[in-house]
């Protein structure tokens, strides 16, 4: 599957893994004392109608601990997932275009109110607000910059 990035839930014993090679997201139960991670649920990060070449890239968990976002390079989109702790599962909410080609990196703004996406081969950085349901909503304007691959706030 090619695990690429991991984020940990802020309060519950769970971790989320973006798997690059098969474009999946794995929900794992995390036992910090034992240092053991156990997979409990897996979902595709791709829309069911997408059949092209793609690989998952970045993963971002909103501080609310319920809304999770994973970018796909090739499909050039962001999947929005909802974490259901009681059921130990992830549900797909929907997909949003990343606003450029090959979204390699994503992060939250310092105030956690925007998702910022580096579209490496599209030479753009795009910003998204969050809708009422947590879905990314394009904000604009688009920042044009050569081959962005990461974003750091100082």
Brief account:
The protein has 154 residues and is mostly beta strands.
Low-confidence stretches: none
**Whole-number mean pLDDT:** 95
Helical/strand content category = mainly beta
* Residues in helices, as a percent range: under 10%
Q: What distance separates the N and C termini? A: 34 Å
Largest sheet features: 5 strands, antiparallel
What is the N-to-C succession of helices and strands?
Answer: EEEEEEEEEEEEE
Please report which band the strand proportion falls in: under 5%, 5-15%, 15-25%, 25-35%, 35-45% or over 45%.
over 45%
Number of alpha- plus pi-helical segments: 0
Number of DSSP strand runs: 13
CA-atom Rg in angstroms: 15 Å
| Global outline | globular
Q: Could you characterize what this model shows?
A:
This protein is mainly β. The strands form 3 sheets. Strands 9, 10, 11, 12 and 13 form a 5-stranded antiparallel sheet that branches. The chain has a 4-stranded antiparallel sheet with strand order 1-2-3-4, with no helix packed on it. Strands 5-6-7-8 form a 4-stranded antiparallel sheet, with no helix packed on it. The chain is 0% helix and 54% strand.
Question: What is the strand and helix layout of this fold?
Answer:
Elements: E1 3-8, E2 14-19, E3 24-31, E4 36-44, E5 55-61, E6 67-73, E7 77-84, E8 89-97, E9 103-108, E10 115-119, E11 124-130, E12 136-138, E13 143-144
Antiparallel strand pairs: 1-2, 2-3, 3-4, 5-6, 6-7, 7-8, 9-10, 10-11, 11-12, 11-13
């Amino acid at each position: 599957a090619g695990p690429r990035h991991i984020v940990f839930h802020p309060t519950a014993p769970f971790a989320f893994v973006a798997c690059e090679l098969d474009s999946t997201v794995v929900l794992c139960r995390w036992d910090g004392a034992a240092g053991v991670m156990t997979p409990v649920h897996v979902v595709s990060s791709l829309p069911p109608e997408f059949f092209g070449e793609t690989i998952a890239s970045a993963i971002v968990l909103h501080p609310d601990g319920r809304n999770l976002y994973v970018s796909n390079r090739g499909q050039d989109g962001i999947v929005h997932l909802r974490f259901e702790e009681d059921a130990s599962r992830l549900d797909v909410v929907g997909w949003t275009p990343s606003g450029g080609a090959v979204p390699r990196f994503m992060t939250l703004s310092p105030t956690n109110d925007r998702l910022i996406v580096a579209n490496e081969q599209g030479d753009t950085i795009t910003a998204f607000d969050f809708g009422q349901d947590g879905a990314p909503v394009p904000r604009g304007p688009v920042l044009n910059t050569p081959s962005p691959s990461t974003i750091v706030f100082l």
